[in-house]
Amino acid sequence: MFYVSTFFCMFTDYGVSSYDIGTGFGHFAISTQDVSKMVETVRAKGGNVTREPGPVKGGNSVIAFVKDPDGYAFELIQRGPTPEPLCQVMLRTGDLDRAIKFYEKALGMRLLRRIERPEYKYTIGMMGYAEEYETIVLELTYNYGVTEYTKGNAYAQIAIGTDDVYKSGEVVKIVNQELGGKITREAGPLPGLGTKIVSFLDPDGWKTVLVDNKDFLKELE
């Protein structure tokens, strides 16, 4: 069983003052009951507002976009109260159908929603384990005619909990053979820590780390 948790890690590498985010990473999304108020808070603290509050193209949702000091984009989405304010991670893919199939077969996610926007030349697949208003979802975006993106050196990985990293790792290997992807670290405990993980790349080169649920909870004790 997989489990997505709202933990967001930020790392500092000694001696490195800037990173290249690349063209493939899209944004994180944060839900709020008042987008305009949050935008003003960001602006008051010196943040960079790149899109003022307003309805999304082709829809009714009120959104805005801001950037943090490192250049990461955040979409602010106006919604009712939610237990998971960090609600989306958007990654671009060169083949949406392949990406959807990979996350369905390798990680047991469901396609929650497919959004076709031919007038703007893109299609989105919302992937997750529960409905969008209940947990974090993965927003896979395909831009017409673009099959490859640069990854840069800033984005690291998505972490997902699993009850059995060994069994999950074997499933990922089978799916890799069919759809592409690569195991980057075989299942097993981390030296000095003991937490069992397995890591891999999806067909577009995005990294995911599967973390043993019980081991992770022990880390938090």
How much helical structure, as a percent, in the residues? 10-25%
End-to-end Cα distance: 22 Å
The CATH C-level class name of the largest domain: Alpha Beta
* Share in β-strands: 35-45%
Over the alpha carbons, how many angstroms does the gyration radius reach?
18 Å
Shape descriptor reads: globular
Question: In words, what does this structure look like?
Answer:
Strand 11 and strand 12 form a beta hairpin. The two termini are about 20 Å apart. The chain has helices at about 35-45, 95-105, 165-180, 215-220, and strands spanning about 1-5, 25-30, 50-55, 60-65, 75-80, 85-90, 110-115, 120-130, 135-145, 160, 180-190, 195-200, 205-210. The protein has about 220 residues and is an alpha+beta fold. It folds into two domains: about 20-145, 2,3-Dihydroxybiphenyl 1,2-Dioxygenase, domain 1; about 160-220, 2,3-Dihydroxybiphenyl 1,2-Dioxygenase, domain 1 (Roll). It has an eight-stranded mixed sheet, covered by helices on one side.
